[in-house]
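Consider the following assembly input.
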Amino acid sequence: GAVVSQHPSWVICKSGTSVKIECRSLDFQATTMFWYRQFPKQSLMLMATSNEGSKATYEQGVEKDKFLINHASLTLSTLTVTSAHPEDSSFYICSARGTDFYEQYFGPGTRLTVT
Amino acid sequence: GQQVMQIPQYQHVQEGEDFTTYCNSSTTLSNIQWYKQRPGGHPVFLIQLVKSGEVKKQKRLTFQFGEAKKNSSLHITATQTTDVGTYFCAGSSNDYKLSFGAGTTVTVRA
Protein backbone atom coordinates (compact mmCIF):
# COMPACT_ATOMS: atom_id res chain seq x y z
CA GLY A 1 0.00 0.00 0.00
CA ALA A 2 0.88 3.67 -0.21
CA VAL A 3 3.29 4.96 2.40
CA VAL A 4 3.32 8.37 4.02
CA SER A 5 6.11 9.50 6.29
CA GLN A 6 6.10 12.34 8.76
CA HIS A 7 9.02 14.08 10.42
CA PRO A 8 9.74 14.62 13.20
CA SER A 9 7.78 12.00 15.11
CA TRP A 10 7.94 14.11 18.24
CA VAL A 11 9.21 17.56 19.11
CA ILE A 12 9.48 19.68 22.22
CA CYS A 13 9.81 23.41 21.78
CA LYS A 14 9.68 26.53 23.88
CA SER A 15 6.76 28.89 23.82
CA GLY A 16 7.15 31.54 21.13
CA THR A 17 9.25 29.46 18.76
CA SER A 18 8.17 27.96 15.44
CA VAL A 19 8.11 24.30 14.49
CA LYS A 20 8.02 22.78 11.02
CA ILE A 21 6.52 19.33 10.38
CA GLU A 22 7.11 17.52 7.10
CA CYS A 23 4.77 15.08 5.42
CA ARG A 24 5.99 13.02 2.49
CA SER A 25 4.33 10.50 0.22
CA LEU A 26 7.05 7.94 -0.45
CA ASP A 27 5.70 5.86 -3.30
CA PHE A 28 2.95 7.87 -4.94
CA GLN A 29 2.17 11.39 -6.03
CA ALA A 30 -0.08 13.11 -3.55
CA THR A 31 -2.27 15.58 -5.34
CA THR A 32 -4.01 16.41 -2.09
CA MET A 33 -2.70 16.38 1.44
CA PHE A 34 -4.64 16.91 4.62
CA TRP A 35 -3.53 18.06 8.04
CA TYR A 36 -5.34 16.89 11.14
CA ARG A 37 -5.04 17.52 14.81
CA GLN A 38 -5.91 14.87 17.38
CA PHE A 39 -6.26 15.39 21.11
CA PRO A 40 -5.83 12.42 23.47
CA LYS A 41 -8.62 9.89 23.13
CA GLN A 42 -10.45 12.13 20.70
CA SER A 43 -11.20 12.10 17.02
CA LEU A 44 -9.28 13.69 14.19
CA MET A 45 -10.06 17.31 13.48
CA LEU A 46 -9.33 18.45 9.95
CA MET A 47 -7.26 21.61 9.98
CA ALA A 48 -6.62 22.23 6.32
CA THR A 49 -6.52 20.73 2.85
CA SER A 50 -3.66 21.45 0.51
CA ASN A 51 -3.31 20.83 -3.18
CA GLU A 52 0.07 20.87 -4.87
CA GLY A 53 0.98 24.29 -6.13
CA SER A 54 -1.97 26.15 -4.65
CA LYS A 55 -2.88 27.76 -1.35
CA ALA A 56 -4.21 25.59 1.41
CA THR A 57 -7.87 25.68 2.34
CA TYR A 58 -8.33 26.06 6.08
CA GLU A 59 -11.26 24.82 8.11
CA GLN A 60 -13.32 27.26 10.07
CA GLY A 61 -11.63 28.32 13.27
CA VAL A 62 -8.11 27.39 12.15
CA GLU A 63 -5.76 30.37 12.00
CA LYS A 64 -3.97 30.32 8.66
CA ASP A 65 -1.30 32.75 9.88
CA LYS A 66 -0.49 30.48 12.79
CA PHE A 67 -0.54 27.17 10.94
CA LEU A 68 1.34 27.76 7.70
CA ILE A 69 0.95 25.04 5.12
CA ASN A 70 3.06 24.64 2.02
CA HIS A 71 2.52 21.94 -0.61
CA ALA A 72 5.40 22.69 -2.93
CA SER A 73 5.64 19.33 -4.67
CA LEU A 74 3.56 16.23 -5.31
CA THR A 75 5.37 14.39 -2.54
CA LEU A 76 5.89 16.98 0.17
CA SER A 77 3.72 19.17 2.33
CA THR A 78 4.85 21.08 5.40
CA LEU A 79 2.99 22.47 8.38
CA THR A 80 4.69 25.23 10.35
CA VAL A 81 3.30 26.10 13.75
CA THR A 82 4.35 29.69 14.27
CA SER A 83 4.85 31.31 17.67
CA ALA A 84 3.82 28.12 19.39
CA HIS A 85 2.02 28.21 22.72
CA PRO A 86 1.29 25.41 25.20
CA GLU A 87 -2.28 25.14 23.90
CA ASP A 88 -0.81 24.14 20.52
CA SER A 89 0.52 20.96 22.10
CA SER A 90 -1.15 18.10 20.31
CA PHE A 91 -0.77 15.17 17.94
CA TYR A 92 -0.59 16.40 14.35
CA ILE A 93 -1.25 13.88 11.58
CA CYS A 94 -1.03 14.34 7.85
CA SER A 95 -2.67 12.23 5.20
CA ALA A 96 -2.40 12.08 1.46
CA ARG A 97 -4.40 10.85 -1.45
CA GLY A 98 -3.42 10.40 -5.06
CA THR A 99 -5.36 10.70 -8.28
CA ASP A 100 -5.90 6.98 -8.66
CA PHE A 101 -7.48 6.17 -5.33
CA TYR A 102 -10.01 7.66 -2.97
CA GLU A 103 -8.77 6.61 0.42
CA GLN A 104 -6.38 8.66 2.50
CA TYR A 105 -3.08 7.27 3.71
CA PHE A 106 -1.96 8.64 7.03
CA GLY A 107 1.48 9.48 8.27
CA PRO A 108 2.59 8.22 11.69
CA GLY A 109 1.92 11.60 13.30
CA THR A 110 3.98 14.19 15.13
CA ARG A 111 3.55 14.79 18.82
CA LEU A 112 4.23 18.45 19.60
CA THR A 113 4.82 19.61 23.15
CA VAL A 114 5.21 23.31 23.78
CA THR A 115 6.72 24.25 27.12
CA GLY B 1 -21.18 21.92 8.20
CA GLN B 2 -21.27 18.18 7.89
CA GLN B 3 -21.29 16.30 11.18
CA VAL B 4 -20.77 12.61 11.72
CA MET B 5 -21.88 11.06 14.98
CA GLN B 6 -20.58 7.68 16.09
CA ILE B 7 -21.69 5.42 18.93
CA PRO B 8 -20.78 3.86 21.22
CA GLN B 9 -17.65 5.72 22.26
CA TYR B 10 -16.35 2.69 24.12
CA GLN B 11 -16.98 -1.00 23.59
CA HIS B 12 -15.65 -3.58 26.01
CA VAL B 13 -16.12 -7.00 24.51
CA GLN B 14 -15.61 -10.55 25.69
CA GLU B 15 -13.36 -12.43 23.30
CA GLY B 16 -15.49 -14.40 20.88
CA GLU B 17 -18.51 -12.10 21.11
CA ASP B 18 -19.89 -9.83 18.40
CA PHE B 19 -20.37 -6.07 18.47
CA THR B 20 -21.49 -3.21 16.25
CA THR B 21 -20.53 0.44 15.98
CA TYR B 22 -22.85 2.93 14.32
CA CYS B 23 -22.40 6.19 12.43
CA ASN B 24 -24.93 8.83 11.50
CA SER B 25 -24.43 11.88 9.34
CA SER B 26 -26.38 15.11 9.48
CA THR B 27 -26.25 15.26 5.68
CA THR B 28 -26.35 12.81 2.80
CA LEU B 29 -22.91 11.47 2.02
CA SER B 30 -21.29 10.61 -1.26
CA ASN B 31 -19.31 7.91 0.46
CA ILE B 32 -18.25 6.75 3.88
CA GLN B 33 -14.89 5.32 4.85
CA TRP B 34 -13.81 3.32 7.87
CA TYR B 35 -10.42 3.50 9.52
CA LYS B 36 -8.79 1.66 12.40
CA GLN B 37 -6.28 3.25 14.76
CA ARG B 38 -4.32 0.98 17.06
CA PRO B 39 -3.16 2.39 20.40
CA GLY B 40 -0.22 4.72 19.74
CA GLY B 41 -0.63 4.38 16.00
CA HIS B 42 -2.18 6.26 13.13
CA PRO B 43 -5.45 5.63 11.27
CA VAL B 44 -5.32 2.86 8.69
CA PHE B 45 -7.86 2.66 5.89
CA LEU B 46 -10.22 -0.30 6.06
CA ILE B 47 -12.89 0.22 3.43
CA GLN B 48 -15.05 2.65 1.49
CA LEU B 49 -18.78 2.37 0.85
CA VAL B 50 -20.32 4.31 -1.99
CA LYS B 51 -23.64 2.83 -3.03
CA SER B 52 -26.93 3.13 -1.20
CA GLY B 53 -27.56 -0.04 0.83
CA GLU B 54 -24.10 -1.37 0.10
CA VAL B 55 -22.73 -4.21 2.22
CA LYS B 56 -19.10 -5.26 2.20
CA LYS B 57 -17.31 -7.94 4.17
CA GLN B 58 -13.72 -8.32 5.21
CA LYS B 59 -13.34 -11.65 7.00
CA ARG B 60 -15.08 -11.06 10.35
CA LEU B 61 -15.92 -7.42 9.61
CA THR B 62 -19.17 -6.43 7.90
CA PHE B 63 -19.72 -2.86 6.75
CA GLN B 64 -23.08 -1.41 5.75
CA PHE B 65 -24.15 1.85 4.15
CA GLY B 66 -27.72 2.94 4.73
CA GLU B 67 -30.30 3.33 2.01
CA ALA B 68 -30.40 7.09 2.52
CA LYS B 69 -26.58 7.27 2.57
CA LYS B 70 -26.69 8.99 5.95
CA ASN B 71 -25.76 6.12 8.23
CA SER B 72 -23.34 3.25 8.35
CA SER B 73 -22.36 0.41 10.63
CA LEU B 74 -19.45 -1.88 11.29
CA HIS B 75 -20.19 -5.29 12.76
CA ILE B 76 -17.40 -7.52 14.03
CA THR B 77 -18.08 -11.17 14.75
CA ALA B 78 -16.12 -13.44 17.07
CA THR B 79 -13.99 -10.62 18.43
CA GLN B 80 -10.29 -11.35 18.84
CA THR B 81 -7.58 -9.52 20.77
CA THR B 82 -6.21 -8.28 17.45
CA ASP B 83 -9.41 -6.24 17.04
CA VAL B 84 -8.35 -3.88 19.84
CA GLY B 85 -8.17 -0.25 18.74
CA THR B 86 -10.33 2.68 17.78
CA TYR B 87 -12.59 2.40 14.77
CA PHE B 88 -13.49 5.64 13.02
CA CYS B 89 -16.08 6.22 10.37
CA ALA B 90 -15.45 9.20 8.13
CA GLY B 91 -18.01 10.72 5.83
CA SER B 92 -17.28 12.54 2.64
CA SER B 93 -19.17 14.75 0.26
CA ASN B 94 -17.76 15.36 -3.19
CA ASP B 95 -14.77 17.39 -2.11
CA TYR B 96 -12.66 14.51 -0.77
CA LYS B 97 -12.59 16.00 2.71
CA LEU B 98 -13.40 13.57 5.49
CA SER B 99 -15.45 14.34 8.58
CA PHE B 100 -14.49 11.84 11.22
CA GLY B 101 -16.81 10.41 13.80
CA ALA B 102 -15.72 10.38 17.43
CA GLY B 103 -14.54 6.80 17.12
CA THR B 104 -15.38 3.61 18.99
CA THR B 105 -12.57 2.39 21.21
CA VAL B 106 -12.66 -1.37 21.52
CA THR B 107 -11.08 -3.35 24.32
CA VAL B 108 -11.23 -7.13 24.55
CA ARG B 109 -11.21 -9.31 27.64
CA ALA B 110 -9.89 -12.81 27.18
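The longest strand of chain B covers residues 85-92. Ask yourself how this observation constrains the way the partners meet.
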